[in-house]
Structure formats: C-alpha cells, structure tokens
Write a structure and sequence with these properties.
This protein is an alpha+beta fold. It has two domains: about 220 residues, Orthogonal Bundle (Endonuclease III, domain 1); about 110 residues, Nucleoside Triphosphate Pyrophosphohydrolase. About 45% of the residues lie in helices and about 15% in strands. The chain has 15 helices and seven strands. Strands 1, 2, 3, 4, 5, 6 and 7 form a seven-stranded mixed β-sheet that branches. α1 packs across α11 and α2 crosses α3. The N and C termini lie far apart (about 50 Å).
Length: about 350
C-alpha cells in the first residue's frame, strides 16, 4: 500500500474531520441503535435525503424495543420512498433477535454485529469503531475511491480482493482511541473532498501530501470501475382507478422486486387508452370516464420501468382491490415511489 502513509496520516485526517465534519443528527451521540439505523438508511441513499427520514424514524421508534415491536406495515410506511425495502425488513428481524436473545442490548463485537440480519462487513465495521472504539475499518465506495487515489491503484474498484486488502491495511492505521473519528474521517473525505463527481479537490485535501495519485497526476482518472451492464427496460401500464370511496391498490407478490409492498393495479405492457378501458372492464370496475394519462420512467439498479398511467373514474369497486382513501394513502399504506408518483 501507500509508502507515504504513516501514523501522521491518521492524526492529520482525524484533526481535519473534527474541524470540518457535517452536522448530522446521527452524529450527536454514539448510541449503536442510532448509528445502525443511519448506516442502513445511507446505503444507496444520499445524506440529504436520509436526514428527514432518520428524524421521523427516531421519533416514531426511539428504541430497539420499539423497532422490534412495530408492525411491518408501519415500518414500510416509515421507509416509503427510501427504496430497497429488504433493508427495513432485515432491521426488524435483527431488532427482534436482539430483544429475544441479547436482552435488548446491541452486541459490541464485530463478529456478533455482523451476524445480525442485513449487516455486512461495512456496517459492522462502522458500528464497532464508532460506538465501541474498535479498530475495524468500514470500507464503502467513498473509502475505496479515496484509497484508490492515495495508492494510485488502477485495480477495478469492484474487485473483491481490493476491498479485502484495503480493509486489512486501514485496520493497521487505527489509533488507540477515537477510532470512530478515523472511520468517519475517511468517509467524510470521500464525500466532501475526494468525491465521485468531477475532479477531486486535491488543492484543499488535508492529506494531499500522502497521495500517490496527486504526485503522479493521475487522481482524476481514478478509481477504475468496470462498466455496468445496461439496465433492462420494461414497459408498464399503471391504472389510477378512482371511485367515490377511494383509489384502487393491491399487494405485490411476496417475491421479486418490491416484494409484498402495495402497488397501483398494473400490467407489464404498454396499452392504448382503448385497451386500458378494456382491461378495467375485465377487472369488473365499470369505467365511467378516462380523466387523463401521463408517462413516467422509474429507474431501479438493474431495471427501468417505462410507465404510462391512466387516471380512470370508475363506478364499481370489486373486492380484488383495496379502495384506499387519501388519508389512508398518506398515513397508512406504504406505496413505493414508482407508484406514488401518480398520486402526487
């Protein structure tokens, strides 16, 4: 790894972090429940988007016991809009496990933390170092990018071996105390200075003296990342069926994308207006009026939904659907963003 780096690197980075870190609600203490919730929310989600979700979640479920006792539908509603809903389902399972097997006390050791549902190396490392002062690196995309530049390393950033090497190397640099500041300093450096978009801000980087890529003039070309496969594109027709007592919703299948969540009725093909009316009649809804239509594209990690939504007033409300009032849609029914767009 980097020849330039020594213990002064650790001290320099930690000093910079303490003076420049962002004011984030989950940094107000080192309570493991708070750090755990924030780290799970931050997976695949921007910090700006997480802040309000975190505050609302903590107000509703201030303790692990509250999370363990919550109904799944309540959890899904709190999570609505964050996506990747298996994250909250796994958190629920983990909280119940902590309550049942650990007396409601969050485990302190890395291996015990990692054994909980939904927690991998990164999250376990973050919790163990931030909350329990353990020398356990938390290597996410930010840290991989920082270390690729510090090392002037052109290994594919998605290479599993690279992550293992960086994790082991960073663990050797941890201080005896305030391990969490070192963990968060690396992450903060990647978020604020050595970022993913545009050229790295080498001129104001607190550890630029240690950076091999800066010395070689290659920082902007790193990290190297293999091109992703093109996302699959799926055409969909979505039905916003509006009756006097509410809007039609139904459950998705218990497996697959958005498993078990609510949705608006839909079919996986693009229908004309006339075909859409015919489909509504087959469901037994008795269409009264086609109000309007709109198009929307929702992008997931591996697939794009190209959606045409038809707003149709109906007279009959067959029991194949649940007919939800505006109040229920707002407060009770967790509707993923892909479908929530049509109800704005």
């Amino acid at each position: 790894m980097v020849k330039r780096i020594d213990k002064t690197f650790t001290e320099t980075l930690m000093t910079w972090y303490r003076e420049n870190r962002r004011d984030l609600p989950w940094r107000e203490d080192k309570e493991p429940y708070h750090v755990w919730v924030s780290e799970i929310m931050l997976q695949q989600t921007r910090v700006e988007a997480v802040r309000e979700y975190y505050l609302r979640f903590m107000k509703a479920l201030p303790t692990i016991s509250d999370l363990a006792a919550a109904e799944e539908e309540t959890l899904l509603k709190l999570w609505q809009g964050l996506g990747y809903y298996n994250r909250i389902r796994n958190m629920h399972k983990a909280a119940q496990q902590i309550e049942a097997q650990m007396g409601g006390i969050f485990p302190q050791e890395f291996d015990a933390i990692k054994a909980l549902p939904g927690i991998g190396d990164y999250t376990a490392g973050a919790i163990a170092s931030i909350c329990f002062n353990q020398k356990t690196a938390a290597v996410d995309g930010n840290v991989l990018r920082v270390m690729s530049r510090l090392n002037n390393d052109d290994t594919d950033i998605l290479n599993a071996g690279l992550k293992k090497r960086i994790t082991a190397y960073l663990s050797s640099l941890y201080p005896e105390k305030d391990c969490g500041d070192f963990t968060q300093g690396l992450i903060e450096l990647g978020a604020l200075i050595c970022g993913p978009a545009g050229a790295p801000k080498c001129e104001i980087c607190p550890v630029n003296a240690y950076c091999e890529a800066k010395a070689a003039g290659t920082a902007a070309a790193l990290p190297v990342k293999a091109k992703k496969k093109a996302r699959k594109k799926v055409d969909m027709t979505v039905f916003i069926l509006q009756a006097p007592l509410g809007t039609a919703v139904c459950r998705r299948a218990e497996t697959g994308l958005l498993a078990g969540l609510y949705q608006l009725p839909n079919v996986e093909k693009r229908l004309t207006a006339a075909q859409a009316i015919e489909q509504v009649e087959r469901w037994g809804c008795t269409p009264k009026n086609l109000l309007r239509s709109t198009d929307y594209c929702h992008v997931f990690t591996h697939v794009e939904w190209h959606m045409t939504g038809y707003f149709i007033a109906v007279e009959k409300m067959p029991k194949i659907f649940q007919w939800a009032s505006d109040a229920q849609l707002a407060a009770e029914i967790p509707l993923p963003t892909a479908f929530g767009y049509f109800l704005k």
